[in-house]
Amino acid sequence: MTKKDIETADFTSTGYSYTLSLIAGKYKPVILYCLMEYEPVRFNEMQRYLKNVADKTLSQNLKELERDGLIVRTVYPQIPPKVEYTLTERGKSLMSVLDKLCDWGNENRPA
User: Residue 110, SS3?
Assistant: First the structure.
């Protein structure tokens, strides 16, 4: 790539940028990983898994992942209300990417 190419390049139009926009942040990759390992997961279980996350922060991240089509929120009509989260097919298709991140971390973690 020449200097001229980089001056006209638009990172925001790349697939890499799009993928990062879906999983960016402190909690989204962890939420997805949790669902990959343990689905279905209830809100309180997710909160315990993430340790020090505020209700509002977790709720916002879950809503964004649902909006982006990566997870499904299922509400069961019972008392008390029961809500579970699972990965969509689109979310499951992202798991190979997260698996690669996990592999890299395991291979490169300091001893």
Answer: coil
Q: What is the pLDDT of residue 2?
A: 59
0.90 exceeded by the pTM?
no
Nearest in space to 42 (alpha carbons), one of 15, 9, 21, 71: 71
Radius of gyration of the chain (CA): 17
Q: What is the DSSP letter of 81?
A: -
DSSP 8-state secondary structure symbol assigned to residue 24: -
CA 75 to chain centre: 20
Residues with Cβ within 8 Å of residue 47, at least 6 apart in sequence = 53, 55, 58
Q: Give me the residue label for tokens 């300091």.
A: 110
Domains observed in the chain: 12-108 (1.10.10.10)
